[in-house]
């Protein structure tokens, strides 16, 4: 198998630059006429995945919305992952894990080792126990040609308190970005990505980490192709926009989901050229 970064680049060229989030919010379940239960979750999540996965580069299930339904919800997550991969999409599992190294290895086994029923092509990780507390994830990803997306400059308004904090060498976010650049050194399309929100406004950080840039915050949180172009400058060709609520709100009709996803991918495709 090729490394994740190369597989992602090929998928974005082939299917357009879009990561479609599967975030089964209770309000969306209701809007789709489903109950807030494991049965409603299953109908919602599989309808969305079956519709979108044949058309988008990446499907990103948000684990919390499955976990809140207990073990039945996690079983649905397993089916979403398998369904999306069978349809040819890459799966980025959004779990934002981060812990001491020995525990991080167990997360790596759960989400990146192909023997696990929850194994995905890539996962999200939080570096706030120290970037190298993530080493077990990074090493397991390398061993299985998977990817890791590390939070750098997130889309939420509380983020600057930690991420803009000064360090002897710059800022916390700058150090995360530099660590990713080091991991991807020598690769044209590295497998270790940064998460940078489309809503962060101006930044002086060097956002080109040599790997993909997962960019949530487009659509429902207000980010646009123009704001993405402004924020990412010469790194814009690495951007993978991620949108959840805006696409899912078009459902439950599969054709409407696909049309909204396609329109979003088309709106961002010009950024990559
Ligand atoms: O890692 C993420 O995906 C993420 C990082 C971030 O900075 N901001 C952010 O919104 N997200 C996730 O991206 C999704 C955003 O969904 P919408 O705002 O509905 O498009 C949610 O699943 C968030 O958890």
TrEMBL record:
Chain ranges passing through the membrane: none
Pathway linked to the protein: Pyrimidine metabolism; UMP biosynthesis via de novo pathway; UMP from orotate: step 2/2
Pfam families to which the protein is assigned, alphabetical: OMPdecase
Orotidine 5'-phosphate decarboxylase domain: residues covered: 17-260
Keywords associated with the record: Decarboxylase, Lyase, Pyrimidine biosynthesis
Cell membrane is among the record's keywords: no
Gene3D superfamilies given in the database record: Aldolase class I (3.20.20.70)
Name used for this protein in its record: Orotidine 5'-phosphate decarboxylase
Superkingdom per UniProt: Bacteria
Molecular function (Gene Ontology), one example: orotidine-5'-phosphate decarboxylase activity
EC number: 4.1.1.23
Positions annotated as active site in the UniProt record: 96
Enzyme type, top EC level: lyase
Native species: Nocardioides mangrovicus
PROSITE patterns: OMPDECASE
Reaction it catalyzes: orotidine 5'-phosphate + H(+) = UMP + CO2
GO BP: 'de novo' pyrimidine nucleobase biosynthetic process; 'de novo' UMP biosynthetic process
HAMAP family from the UniProt entry: OMPdecase_type2 (MF_01215)
Family of the protein in this entry: Belongs to the OMP decarboxylase family. Type 2 subfamily.
